[in-house]
Design a protein that fits this description.
The complex is a heterodimer.
Chain A: H1 4-43, H2 48-63, H3 66-76, H4 87-112, H5 116-124, H6 129-159, H7 171-182, H8 185-217
Helix pairs in contact in A: 1-2, 1-4, 1-6, 1-7, 1-8, 2-4, 3-4, 4-6, 5-6, 6-8, 7-8
Chain B: E1 9-18, E2 21-31, E3 36-40, H1 47-54, E4 62-67, E5 70-71, E6 74-76, E7 81-82, H2 85-91, E8 95-98, H3 110-120, H4 126-139, H5 155-167, E9 173-177, H6 185-200, E10 204-208, H7 212-218, E11 221-226, E12 229-234, H8 236-240, H9 246-267
Parallel strand pairs in B: 3-10, 3-11, 8-9, 9-10
Antiparallel strand pairs in B: 1-2, 1-4, 4-5, 6-7, 11-12
Helix pairs in contact in B: 3-4, 3-5, 4-5, 5-6
The chains are: A mainly alpha, B alpha/beta.
The complex binds adenosine-5'-diphosphate (ADP) and magnesium ion.
Family (chain A): Belongs to the binding-protein-dependent transport system permease family. HisMQ subfamily.
Domain ABC transmembrane type-1 (chain A): 14-207
GO biological process, one term (chain A): amino acid transport
C-alpha cells in the first residue's frame, strides 16, 4: 500500500532535488543550444577545417555515453591538472556537451532546409553573417525543427538522471537515498517517475502549443 | 563621379566559368543613370549568371564590373583578390535585387521584411524604420498588408513586398531576375505595373525577362544574350523589328509562335 506519511515527509527533499534537476538540465540545455548552433554552423562552413572539427565534435560527444563523459569530466580532468569542478558544474558541462552534439545535428537539418535565396537576399541587403544567423537562420531552424528540439529536451532531462554519478543531489540521487533509508523501493521510485513526468508532460504540451503558434506565421 | 555622363554600371569583358562550363564569354555593357535595360535570351544562355555577377552573387572571374566607378567584388584584378566584406557591401549598397523566387523571410511580416535591414544595417530606430517601411509598402500598393506574413500573400503580393524591401534601402540601381516567371499569369500584371512606375520615376534598372511586351514598352535598351555573349543590343524597336541577327530572329520567332499558339487556342471555338 502507498505509505502517505513517508511520502509527505520526503516531499521537501524531492522538491529540492527537482529544482536541482531542472537547474542542471535547463542550464545545460541553454549551453547545449549555443554549442549546437555553433557546431551546426561549423559543419556547414565553406572552410574544410571547420567542417572537420564540427564533425569530430559530434563523433565524440554523440558516440561516448553520457555516463562516461560525466565520469571523465568529474574524475579524470582534475587528474590531468585541471581544477576541480564542483558536481553541479561537471553535470552542466556534461549535459551541455552531449546535448550540443544532438542539437547540432538537428540544427544542421534546419539550416539546410532554408532556401539559399533567402540568405542571398540577406547578404545583399547588407546583413552581416552574425545577423543572418541570429535573425534569419536560427528563428527559422527552430520553427522547422521544433518537434525534434522538444524531443531532445525531454531526452536530456531524462538523461540528467545520470548526473547523480558525480554526487549531485538530483531527483534520482535523492530518491535512491530515500529508498535506501525507508526501504519503500517501489513507492519511492514510482514517485521519482512521476516527478520526471511532471517536468516532461508540460514540456511536450508547451512544444505542441509553440508549434501551432509558430506554424501560423511560418 | 556621379554626374550624368558616367554610367552607373559598367561591365568590361566579363567572364564566368562553372568548372569547365564557360557561361559568360566577355560581356560588355554600360548602364546609364535612369536607363532601363532588359536582358533577353534563351534559357541557359547565362542571363541569371550575368545579373548575379552584377551583384557579386557570382564571382565573375574575368573582366571588371564597376558600380558608380567602384570595382565590384575584387580588391585587385591581377592577381584576383577578393575585396573585404565591408568594401563589397559598400560598393553594392547602391544596388537592390529582386529574385524570381521572391526570397522573403517567411517568419517575418511584410513590414518586418522591409524593416529588417533598415534597422540592422542602416541603423534606423524601430519607429523610423516602420514609418519608412509602411511608405514603401504603400508605394507597391500593399499598405494594408503590412502585418501579413508571406504565406498569407499571393505570389504577386510577395514579389511586391520583395520590391519594397529592396527599395527601402534607397538603391540607385535595381536588378530583376525574371521577377514574374514564378507567378500565375493573372498576377504578372500587378508586378509589371509596379516596375513600370519605378522606371517612370527614373530608377535605373536591369531586368532579365521573358515579358517581351514589358521590354518593348519600358526598356530603353534591349540586350540579347546568347552563348555567353551579348550578340545584339539596341532600342526595343531595332531589336524586335529590324534585327538581322539570325539567332535573335529565331528566338523572337519561337516566342511569337508560342504566343500565337495560345492565341489560336483562345480563338478556337469550343
Ligand atoms: N551555380 C552553378 N553551378 C554550375 N553551373 C551553373 C550554375 N549556375 C548556372 N550554371 C550554368 O550556367 C548556364 C547558364 O545558366 P543561367 O545563367 O541560369 O542561364 P539563364 O538564366 O539564361 O537561363 C547553364 O548552363 C547552367 O547550367
Ligand atoms: Mg535564369
Amino acid at each position: 500500500m502507498f505509505d502517505w506519511p513517508t511520502f509527505l515527509e520526503s516531499l521537501p527533499l524531492m522538491a529540492q532535488a527537482l529544482v536541482v534537476t531542472l537547474q542542471t538540465s535547463l542550464v545545460g540545455l541553454a549551453f547545449g543550444f549555443v554549442i549546437g548552433i555553433a557546431v551546426a554552423s561549423m559543419r556547414l562552413s565553406p572552410t574544410p577545417l571547420l567542417r572537420r572539427l564540427g564533425g569530430a565534435y559530434i563523433f565524440v560527444f554523440r558516440g561516448v555515453p553520457l555516463l562516461v563523459q560525466l565520469l571523465f569530466i568529474y574524475y579524470l580532468l582534475p587528474r590531468i591538472g585541471l581544477p576541480n569542478i564542483p558536481p553541479i558544474g561537471a553535470a552542466i558541462i556534461g549535459l551541455a556537451l552531449a546535448s550540443g552534439a544532438y542539437i547540432a545535428e538537428i540544427f544542421r537539418g534546419g539550416f539546410l532546409a532554408i532556401p539559399h535565396g533567402q540568405l542571398e537576399a540577406a547578404n545583399l541587403l547588407g546583413l552581416s553573417p552574425w545577423q543572418t544567423l541570429t535573425r534569419i537562420k536560427v528563428p527559422q531552424a527552430i520553427r522547422l525543427t521544433l518537434p525534434a528540439l522538444v524531443n531532445e529536451m525531454i531526452l536530456l532531462i531524462k538523461a540528467s538522471s545520470l548526473v547523480s554519478v558525480v554526487g549531485l543531489a538530483d531527483l534520482t540521487r535523492v530518491a535512491q537515498n530515500l529508498a535506501a533509508s525507508n526501504y519503500l523501493f517501489l513507492q519511492t521510485y514510482l514517485v521519482l517517475a512521476l516527478f520526471y513526468c511532471l517536468i516532461n508532460i508540460p514540456l511536450a504540451g508547451l512544444g505542441s502549443l509553440l508549434e501551432r503558434r509558430l506554424g501560423r506565421s511560418a | 563621379m556621379n554626374d550624368v555622363t558616367t554610367p552607373i554600371l559598367t561591365l568590361r569583358n566579363v567572364g564566368k566559368r562553372f568548372g569547365t562550363n564557360q557561361v559568360l564569354k566577355g560581356v560588355d555593357l554600360d548602364v546609364q543613370r535612369s536607363e532601363v535595360v532588359c536582358l533577353i535570351g534563351p534559357s541557359g544562355s547565362g542571363k541569371s549568371t550575368l545579373l548575379r555577377s552584377m551583384a557579386f552573387l557570382e564571382e565573375y572571374d574575368e573582366g571588371e564590373i564597376h558600380i558608380n566607378g567602384q570595382l565590384l567584388g575584387w580588391q585587385s584584378i591581377s592577381p584576383r583578390r577578393r575585396a573585404s566584406r565591408s568594401r563589397l557591401n559598400q560598393v553594392r549598397s547602391s544596388l537592390g535585387m529582386v529574385f524570381q523566387q521572391f526570397n522573403l523571410w517567411p517568419h517575418m511580416s511584410a513590414l518586418g521584411n522591409v524593416c529588417e535591414a533598415l534597422v540592422r544595417v542602416k541603423g534606423l530606430t524601430r519607429s523610423d524604420a516602420e514609418r519608412k517601411g509602411r511608405a514603401m509598402l504603400d508605394k507597391v500598393g500593399l499598405a494594408e498588408k503590412a502585418d501579413a506574413f508571406p504565406a498569407q500573400l499571393s505570389g504577386g503580393q510577395q514579389q511586391r513586398v520583395a520590391i519594397a524591401r529592396a527599395l527601402a534601402m534607397e538603391p540607385s540601381l535595381m536588378l530583376f531576375d525574371e521577377p514574374t516567371s514564378a507567378l500565375d499569369p493573372e498576377l504578372v500584371g500587378e508586378v509589371l505595373q509596379v516596375m513600370k512606375q519605378l522606371a517612370a520615376d527614373g530608377m535605373t534598372m536591369v531586368v532579365v525577362t521573358h515579358e517581351m511586351g514589358f521590354a518593348a514598352q519600358v526598356a530603353d535598351t534591349v540586350a540579347f544574350l546568347d552563348g555567353g555573349h551579348i550578340v545584339a543590343k539596341g532600342a526595343p524597336r531595332d531589336i524586335f523589328h529590324d534585327t538581322e541577327h539570325p539567332r535573335l530572329q529565331q528566338f523572337l520567332q519561337n516566342y511569337l509562335d508560342r504566343n500565337a499558339f495560345w492565341q489560336d487556342l483562345k480563338e478556337t471555338p469550343a
